[in-house]
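**User:** Hello, beginner here. Are you able to go through the protein record under this note? It all follows right here:
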Amino acid sequence: MAEQRMLKFVKVARDMPSKRLAEERRGDFHEIYREFADAKAAEQSSRCSQCGVPYCQSHCPLHNNIPDWLKLTAEGRLREAYEISQATNTFPEICGRICPQDRLCEGNCVIEQSGHGTVTIGAIEKYITDTAWEEGWVAPIVPAAEREESIGVIGAGPGGLAAADALRRAGFKVTVYDRYDRAGGLLIYGIPGFKLEKDVVVRRNRQLAEGGVEFVLNCDVGKDITFAELRAKHDAVLIATGVYKTRDLGGPGSGLNGIVRAIDYLTASNRKSFGDLVPEFESGELNADGREVVVIGGGDTAMDCVRTAIRQGAKSVKCLYRRDRANMPGSQREVANAEEEGVEFAWLTAPKGFTGESAVAGVRVGRMRLGAPDASGRQSPEEIPDADYTESAQLVIKALGFEPEDLPRLWDVEGLEVTRWGTVKADFTTKQTSLDGVFAVGDIVRGASLVVWAIRDGREAAASIIDYLDTRGSGASIAAE
């Protein structure tokens, strides 16, 4: 009788790749999870129940064929597993590392709901594609036929890169423009190395470049090149800039030195990891070494900041969040990792102001409680009267989320419609904006969201651009009339 390869969740317990000890990982920016061995990955894959309605797949924004590549992994057919994984996800090794699986695929796993512990989907996804790179299965982009049309992509983040990959595979000339000196967007400068080591992103960028995608870096649209020039140069344009404008925080003392934006802090740290000269880091402005650090916010960016500060040698790190642990937007797995590494969380707290002369010395904190639900259904925090206190701090990091920049103004473009939130208005299905031949994807359309959603948007936009050019025919630019 053939060995039963699947449905082993009753006999085999859930098992994640082992984590490096907190004391060890506090001292570097390497990823914290060790690699699965072949046998362990196969064993964990065999726990999949192969259910008739795979909720893991339906709750994945990319609708990855998760049960299929779990079965293939359990059977030792890793190359086929990689091909299935790559068919729906442009960057599976990145999603395997940074997706909040506890809120998506793993959180909706049928055997998790039945009390047997979820299949470790993210770790296996990472393992499959890392193995594919090591074995040379990740093939260079070689279009079946070249096309004359060219597409300009503004933004080298996950949405722009996913679209560039798909468009180049279809044979189009693709040029990606980005304001930074390295491609990757927040994958490079926003997410710390302990969650996503940078060589993982760099090798994908290299694959795109070797496959014929042109990168124009250090290029700020609206300054170095106009939007009108891009439209004149290309047959279609894709806006994938992301959102980088930080939500601000007022109150007494909000202008003191030592109060910084999360994006600036994380970018400085990641540049330092690349070996760049970072004056703001060397001066201590964006360096937590030896300082009492307070991070304000409860999302994944806040978790990135607190864990970065620990690694920089902060004297203490505290995170203020206005709701409780159960209602925070960030990954619970990241909160647990942060606590292991020495971060202290002050739940139900909100900043009211800052103390200090020229530099911040403390945060004036109000204690909160949860009241009636708001329009979203979450309980609204409300202040407890006469319960203020001061939290000592020499570095305060604002991780309050991101908002879109005013692109029509920055790019001096008329007719580009935006929503009341400032995001670019694009058709839900086609991703086309109010301008002919101009498409938009990712956070600049959705607002701050997940990498996996940006990848999905980029892939869908590529398909829409292909349909648009096939219908329109080649030979004319899309310069504004």
Q: What stands out?
A: The first helix runs from residue 22 to 25. The mean pLDDT is 93. The two ends are 71 Å apart (CA to CA).
